[in-house]
Design brief:
Elements lengths: L8 H15 L4 E6 L6 H14 L3 E6 L10 H8 L21 H16 L4 E6 L6 H13 L5 E7 L7 H12 L1 E4 L5 H12 L2 E2 L1 H7 L6 H13 L3 E4 L2 E4 L8 H10 L3 H10 L8 H8 L8 H9 L3 E4 L2 E4 L2 H8 L4 H17 L4 H9 L3 H18 L4 H14 L7 H14 L3 H12 L5 H17 L3 H12 L6 H17 L3 H18 L1 H17 L3 H18 L9 H10 L3 H18 L5 H14 L3 H17 L3 H17 L3 H15 L11 H10 L3 H14 L5 H5 L3 H11 L3 H17 L4 H15 L2 H13 L3 H17 L3 H18 L2 H15 L22 H9 L4 H8 L3 H15 L4 H11 L3
Helix pairs in contact: 1-2, 4-5, 4-28, 5-6, 7-9, 9-10, 11-12, 11-13, 15-16, 16-17, 17-18, 18-19, 19-20, 19-21, 20-21, 21-22, 21-23, 22-23, 23-24, 23-25, 24-25, 25-26, 25-27, 26-27, 27-28, 27-29, 28-29, 29-30, 29-31, 30-31, 30-45, 31-32, 31-33, 32-33, 33-34, 34-36, 36-37, 36-38, 37-38, 38-39, ...
Protein name: AAA family ATPase
Pfam family, one: GerE
Keywords: ATP-binding, Nucleotide-binding
Length: about 950
């Protein structure tokens, strides 16, 4: 039991309420923040005690620095130690041996947690969470929001400045989005109360004056008081404690040294020897470090140091009471002593099968010979984990760099590798600093090209395509570079040139990357082919777009290795959607997404949501499309892949306009602008068109036209928007015509006609051409032809737009019957799709003229209960209410778990509930059948 905690009544109340909420079925996360020695660990223990009292299972673990290089060790260790014991997480014991990719492990962990929490509430506690390994940190980002509807409470403690570790970044991310508990120093009243409780008597001013030097830090106060008691410098008379004697300790380090000095010489040697270890240790290890052959000789010494309170025993062995105590003892070692002990510790770590980074850490501190071996070990370990944990690999390489001199001949190659790893980890600033520093030195051309490749990847990851393109170009200008490096640079140049609207360079670079990469770097070849697919789609060559994407998919499947990590099925689905081959596009997405999960490629998750949303929008399933795009934004933000959040936000803006929620669209636009202000670039069809759509809906047509003016000038050569959204063509024509820019309206018509000629089998392209011509020329025959083509292409929203324009022409001609037929068809289509903004426009315009009222909802569409839920949300609500976990619901409805999460968040908001328990009760009451 943790006992009473002085001065933390408010923080304890927050945690107790949170645990009471968890017991009632509601999840959540709290980050406890404060400097070392402020009392975070004791607060976590108190929370664990309260959880025990409430029959909430507790999974707790302290993270250690060496966790960083061991995938999932932090979370796995906590869950394996769950109290009461459970077999639900037994599979985590062999997690390192599993061939599945990292993201697949996270999904399996999520499944285990959902099933466990369906039967019992759970508190997950991680102390010193800034040391979490990279996969655990990614899992926490994924699981905290995903499991919010389950009775799972996360309690993570961190120092005030968590640092740039994966765990530190995750904690900062959580603190910005949740409830952080900041622990401050104790005030005077709490300090006096702590002194009284610690000593067992009221204290006078001599004690209070002395502990004032501890700055209100509970640990320092306790250690100081213990030292005073141990050295018999506290005297109690008449129930009052006072300080006596001279040479009193005045700092924490002095306090610890005072306590150590009060121990026997052998006990002191035990403490100093064990201080080189960064994890709990056993008696045998302590004996080895001390040079003893019989661990039993240490029994008396162990009793002595644990009685002193400097060491404590936990389930993993002996450990220093606090990191500050550990550091104070460690600092008392001389250099020669430290080197000798770290050499012994490295041998022990090898024998015990510790992570390579831990062994290397000891070697680095054991002397020059050990440092050289450590550098080789760190580089080898980094290479082994680079594919699955790039941030960890980058940290290992940074350690290696610190261990070698500035003029070491191996340094340039290490810098080059480190820059690439930092880029893969998304740490753009650090990659830029290190790469720029390296480029100022004399590098041979191949090494310089590798550094430039890393910088290009870093800036591409950040969405800063102009800088990425510049670095890629500089790299390609180096002489004698390796062919695999050249292929990767070409692939980056292809994608960045496409993003910067330089289609000619993108096509040429993609073709060259494909040619060289087939022999030397298949992954680069796949990227080159996907860039060519994007270029072909942007230029309206839809068959070529499909051919390149199909070729990339076949190459990735055949080559294996890193090539499938490029996920060409994303672009295959995109090409198939553009050709109205929706069933095949869905098949590609359904095949590719589980494959992506199995490969552990978290970075690709937002893109799967983006292309799913595009397909669902084309099919007129707006509720599902919103859930996919919303889940994509959430995932992109979790992964800090903000460049991928921009097009997803653009999708959500257009969907919000279609659904008639203009305030939401405006809020989404603000978020997108904030991201773009950081330097992220975006294609006009993703960003500018989304904003123009909103402006049009708000009645700001001239502003919308001004925003899209450049598009009209390039529409012939780059009809991407017409390919992505055939129903947008007529809107573009109307926008230009209303601005008095008939030539630009004609340019859109010409672009649509050219697109249709290039793609004679595309009903969407043919429909867009007929629609644009019909709107500009007010030709009912062309509008009827557009309706026919959109029906054949199964594009309900585009068909509704053509019907609306045809109805308007019928109204102008006084043909009430013709207008009514077109109006009814358009209204049925947009109502079925969930395009309520379009529906309201039809009803307030044509509907008023026709004198018709809004149609009644189709019988049985929403059922008899749960008013306000969409057709996509209702089945999710019903299945969750039946006790299914989100993952099971996702399988049942053929959705991704993220999409189910998104639906469930909206369901809770609409129904004004906070837990699955409340949902089950509501469904039982409202839908008894």
């Amino acid at each position: 039991m943790s006992g009473h905690i002085v001065g933390r009544a408010g923080e304890l109340a927050v945690l107790r309420q949170a645990l009471d909420d968890t017991k009632d079925g509601r999840g959540g996360c709290h980050v406890v923040v404060g400097p070392p020695g402020i009392g975070k660990s004791r607060l976590l223990l108190a929370a664990g005690d309260h959880a025990d009292e409430r029959d909430i299972a507790v999974a707790a673990r302290e993270a250690f620095r060496h966790d960083l290089a061991a995938p999932l060790v932090t979370l796995a260790g906590a869950l394996r130690a769950c109290s009461p014991p459970t077999g639900d997480f037994a599979w985590l014991s062999g997690v390192d041996d599993q061939p599945a990719g990292n993201y697949a492990k996270i999904l399996r962990l999520r499944d285990s947690l959902e099933r466990f929490a369906a039967a019992q509430p759970l508190l997950i506690v991680i102390d010193d969470a800034h040391w979490m390994d990279e996969l655990s940190a990614l899992a926490v980002r994924e699981l905290v929001p995903a499991l919010a509807s389950f009775p799972i409470r996360w309690l993570l403690a961190s120092r005030t400045q968590p640092g740039d570790t994966p765990g530190g970044q995750t904690l900062s991310w959580l603190s910005q989005r949740g409830t952080a508990i900041h622990l401050d120093v104790l005030d005077d009243e709490a300090t006096e109360r702590l002194c009284t409780e610690r000593i067992g008597a009221r204290v006078d001013n001599t004690v209070l004056a002395l502990v004032a030097g501890c700055g209100g830090y509970p640990l320092r106060i306790e250690q100081l008081l213990d030292a005073l008691v141990a050295t018999k410098q506290i005297m109690i008379a008449d129930g009052i404690a006072t300080v006596v004697g001279e040479d009193l300790p005045s700092s924490f380090v002095a306090t610890v040294r005072e306590m150590v000095g009060s121990l026997s010489p052998d006990a002191q040697r035990l403490l100093r020897s064990a201080s080189v270890l960064d994890r709990p240790f056993d008696i045998e290890s302590a004996a080895r470090l001390m040079g003893s052959t019989d661990p039993a000789e240490l029994f008396g010494l162990i009793d002595e140091v644990t009685t002193s309170g400097l060491l404590v025993e936990d389930q993993d062995g002996l450990v220093f009471r606090h990191a500050l105590v550990h550091q104070a003892v460690q600092n008392s070692l001389g250099n020669s002593q430290a080197r000798l002990l770290h050499g012994k510790a490295a041998v022990l770590a090898r024998e015990h099968g510790r992570p390579t980074a831990e062994i290397a850490g000891h070697l680095l501190r054991s002397g020059r010979v050990g440092a050289g071996a450590a550098v080789d070990m760190l580089r080898g370990t980094a290479a082994g984990v680079a594919a699955t944990a790039p941030a960890t690999a980058a940290d290992l390489m940074c350690q290696a760099l610190q261990a070698i001199g500035e003029h070491d001949p191996a340094r340039p190659a290490i810098v080059a590798d480190t820059v690439g790893l930092l880029a893969a980890a998304g740490r753009v600033t650090r990659a830029h600093e290190l790469g720029t520093e390296a480029l100022r030195t004399e590098l041979d051309p191949p090494t310089r090209a590798t550094v430039l490749l890393g910088l290009a990847e870093a800036f591409q990851h950040a969405g800063r395509n102009a800088e990425a393109a510049r670095y890629a170009e500089d790299g390609l200008n180096q002489s004698k570079i390796a062919e695999e490096v050249r292929a990767r640079l070409l692939a980056i140049r292809a994608h960045t040139a496409f993003a910067l609207d330089d289609l000619a360079v993108a096509e040429a670079s993609g073709a060259e990357a494909s040619r060289i990469g087939r022999e030397h770097e298949p992954g680069a070849a796949v990227l080159g082919l996907t860039a060519r697919s994007l270029v072909a789609g942007a230029e309206g060559r839809l068959d070529d777009a499909l051919r390149h994407a199909s070729e990339a998919t076949e190459l990735a499947d055949a080559a294996g290795g890193p090539a499938p990590h490029r996920h060409p099925r994303l672009w295959l689905a995109n090409a198939l959607t553009a050709l109205d081959r929706f069933d095949e596009a869905e098949q590609a997405l359904r095949h590719g997404r589980p494959e992506s999960d199995a490969l552990g490629a978290a970075w690709a998750q937002p893109l799967w949501h983006y292309y799913w949303a595009a397909l669902l929008t084309a099919r007129g399933r707006l509720d599902d499309a919103v859930a996919e795009a919303d889940a994509g934004v959430t995932t992109a933000e979790q992964l800090t892949a903000y460049r991928l959040a921009v097009p997803l936000l653009g999708t959500l803006i257009r969907l919000a306009v279609l659904r008639g929620d203009l305030p939401q669209a405006r809020g989404l636009l603000d978020r997108m602008r904030q991201l773009r202000a950081t330097g992220i670039t975006a294609a006009p069809e993703d960003a500018a068109w989304a904003e123009a759509t909103l402006l049009c809906a708000e009645g700001a047509g001239p502003e919308a036209f001004a925003l899209m003016r450049g598009f009209y000038d390039t529409a012939i050569d780059r009809p991407t928007l017409l390919v992505r959204d055939p129903g947008a063509v007529a809107g573009l024509v109307r926008l230009a015509a209303a601005a008095g820019e008939r030539e630009r309206a004609e340019a859109v018509v010409a672009s649509a006609a050219r697109l249709a000629r290039r793609n004679p089998l595309s009903h969407a392209a043919a429909g867009a051409a007929e629609h644009a011509t019909g709107v500009l020329g007010r030709d009912p025959r062309r509008l009827r032809a557009a309706m026919t083509e959109f029906r054949l292409g199964r594009r309900p929203l585009a068909l509704a737009a053509a019907c609306e324009d045809a109805a308007d022409l019928s109204r102008a001609a006084g043909d009430r019957a013709g207008a009514r037929a077109r109006y009814d068809e358009a209204l049925a289509l947009v109502t079925s799709a969930g395009a309520h903004g379009v529906r309201r426009r039809l009803e307030s315009g044509l509907g008023v003229w026709l004198g018709v009222s809004a149609p009644e909802p189709a019988p049985g569409r929403h059922g008899t209960g749960l008013p306000g839920l969409s057709p996509a949300e209702r089945p999710v609500a019903l299945l969750v209410a039946r006790g299914m976990t989100n993952i099971v619901v996702a399988r049942q409805l053929n959705l991704s778990p993220h999409t189910v999460d998104s639906h469930l968040r909206k369901i809770f908001m609409k129904l004004d509930i906070r837990s699955r328990v409340e949902l089950a009760a509501l469904v039982a009451r409202e839908c008894p059948d």
